[in-house]
TrEMBL record:
Protein name per the record: BAR domain-containing protein
Location relative to the cell: Cytoplasm, Cytoskeleton
Domain BAR intervals: 1-210
Keywords: Coiled coil, Cytoplasm, Cytoskeleton
UniProt source species: Pomacea canaliculata
InterPro entries: AH/BAR_dom_sf, BAR_dom, BIN3/RVS161-like
Gene Ontology annotations of biological process type: actin cortical patch localization; endocytosis; plasma membrane tubulation
PANTHER family assigned to the protein according to its UniProt record, in alphabetical order: BRIDGING INTEGRATOR 3 (PTHR47174:SF3)
Gene3D superfamilies named among the record's database cross-references: Arfaptin homology (AH) domain/BAR domain
Domain of life: Eukaryota
Gene Ontology molecular functions: lipid binding
Chain segments annotated as coiled-coil in the UniProt record: 99-160
Major localization listed first in the record, in broad terms: cytoplasm
One GO CC term, this protein: cytoplasm
Amino acid sequence: MGANKRMVLPSDKQKKLCLAARSVRQRLVEAALTKAERRLTQDLQNTPLCQAEKELKWIVEEWDHALVALDLHSQETNSVLQKAVIDPIKKFNTIFPHVQAAVKKREQSLQEVQKCQNKFTRYQGRERTGQNLVKLHSSKDALQQAEQEFSAQNAALMEEMPRLYESRIQYFEPSLEALIRSQVQHTTEAFRIYGELSNTMNGQKDCSNSEYASRIQQSLAEIKALSITVD
């Protein structure tokens, strides 16, 4: 019965891992931040200001192109996640019903041994008549056969279950490695895309966060200095 529980737990863990991978995949599909940026760039392109100001329109278009490129990389990462993690987990989970069936069969064999043992013990205590002796030998043969079947099934499970349990690490290592590499690739490409976009918007000038903040404050100050604005 203990072996049965050991096999249930890994199966449940695989299902939870599969659900977690699907959740990550769904988030990549939704890509909420990227979609929000795309809506922003598309809305900006349709404004009269963007249509009138060529420089602003060009910047927004470059921004939108960067988001399209980033979305393509997200789709590639999503594909790797499906092929390298979700599909292998689903395939691995198909093993457990067969293992559970083997464990159940072993338990049934053990029950049969106990049943035959009780029957044999009962006839041992009876009077040694001809009929009882025949039943005693018959119950002994049945007990020996039941013990042999149980021993064979138990030996197979005791050999194979630890191997299956230990094989999980070797099975999932390539999947996790592929997932991590795809995440690194996605993050690297996102950094490159936004970096190139930043250089494009700033004329290849490398601006720090403090310099961006200073420029924003300067622009706000110039706007507030206009006579048509109210502080």
